[in-house]
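### Sample
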Amino acid sequence: MIHPKSNIKGRGAQQNTHNKFFELSHEMREDFLEFCHKEGETVDKNKTQYLNVFPKTIVNKVTSPDVGMAYSMNMYQGCEHGCIYCYARNSHEFWGYSAGLDFERKILVKKAAPKLLETHLKKKSWNAQTIVMSGNTDCYQPAEQQLELTRQCLEVFLKYKHPVGIITKNALILRDIEILKALAKDNLIAVNVSITSLSEDTRRILEPRTATIKKRLRVVKELSDNGIPVNVMLAPLIPSINSHEILPMAKAVSEAGALSIGHTIVRLNGTIGEIFTDWIYKTMPDRAAKVLNQIESCHGGTLNESRYGVRMRGEGKIAQQINDLVQLARLKYFKNKSMPKLNTNLHEVCKDGQMKLF
């Protein structure tokens, strides 16, 4: 049974873990908490901060051989969605913050992203390859509603006829459907929608500030109905939390129009293992030990898994059962369906922002 009882409302992580790059650590002591309680003072205001950063480039080459993309870009670092399992949490430590609550509440914003992208696409040395937005954090997280950096970047991709991929779990993407339709006319867009459960109770505690499952299924349908190809990521699959939903999820997204599904088995690298363990004992105390043991059984007895070729799919009996179920789902619900290969042939003649005559 799920017990959505957390200390900090509307957040995934329930603590700020120590940043491994810092010598000193910050500790919230019980006597301080007791003092605040007696004085009626607020210990934690739980507000999100948007902090501007100024990178020199925005497009990143992806060297990992098993993530399915060659280039990525992120307009935001940190993510207010608060998904407890998110692999990107560890990257927040590089910026001097915690992978826990800081990751969800200190959002780094790259306002120059559209200009940096345009500069990159105009390089004479650049040969078009699909660039995926949200390789690290969701490009349609709540900050996008006001800042519209993702929308501006999509307009740049359209201007230069360049292929782009999107990964998101936010229904805000439908705001930009006209731009997406224009890209789809030239086969320049592929959207990956993340759906981890059909249960709102599960979604609410795993991904506290994401779009509801109903809205995400509507995203899949509306995009598909408008000729925009959609792959659904059933990711991550977590033993004894959502692994039993593989076939129902696959059926639902196929009926909504998805052309394919992808999946990963959860892995809890670095500080994420500590954050997830703290979270699950607070939200699912009756099954916490079982879930953690089953995750470990998928990764050679540890929560941490970094081996290429193994880390995404796991190993052992439980991992094999999950992978077999996903394969069965593909055969049952996605026969004769597939995602199109994006068009890389139009960009070269559009590097100055318009079609060249010769």
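The radius of gyration is 21 Å. This sample (DNA repair photolyase) is used throughout the tutorial notebook.
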